[in-house]
Amino acid sequence: MTKKVALVGGTGKLGSIIRQVIDDLEGFEIVRVLTSSSDLSEIDGADLVVDASTPQVSVEVVRASAERGINVLVGTSGWSSERIALVRPLVEAAGTGAVFIPNFSLGSVLGSALAAAAAPFFPSAEIIEAHRDTKIDSPSGTAVRTAELISASRSEVGPVSAPYIDQRARGQEVAGVPVHSLRRPGVIARQDAVLSGPGESLTITHDTVDPAQAYAPGIRLAVPFAVEARGVVVGLENMIDIGIQARA
Fold first, then answer.
1. Which 3 state secondary structure label does DSSP give 96?
2. 13 is catalytic
3. Residue of higher predicted confidence among 231 and 243
4. Which domain holds residue 27?
């Protein structure tokens, strides 16, 4: 049976990519395309809600989906573990699923996993992320997720060394990791996880140069997964075997 999808934020950059992928995905049909200002009652009757809206609207999309007993796949940026914790009880009480994907790029997920795997071996870790000047949130959801994974991977060795983190120029502290955000023309998306120790450093870089091509494989994995999910799931790593446990 074909699954009916309501796509929120379907006219934006990410939403347009998601729409194209789902249109070509067997067993799924987009029956509603909403903008970020649409009445969320339009999701009624869908089997899955896919959210590519804005950070402000996204939380309402998750709530509206849970209230209607509909699973939701969230591609909107800006969801930290603290923010996810606010909607987790609602999702669990509804018995639905909410899948949060900070980045649909497989390369980005692998980069974050590599940074987390390497972090226990270096006392210092910082993240520099760059996006085009039209991105409305910072730090990016990918950077937040990477910082959270780095922090979790260091549970046995302690937090990263981040001297003078109280100074604004040192970036925003996310899970104890300094994160620096650049918003400028001439870039699509780039993240550098910089790990440093005595006498050496390791930089793990991921560049997105064509979002449509980079995100499509991850979207194809996430949509079927999300329609069957239960509870809160964070990260594309739950759909591919890269040897890292998901932590929401």
1. coil
2. no
3. 231
4. 3-104+211-238
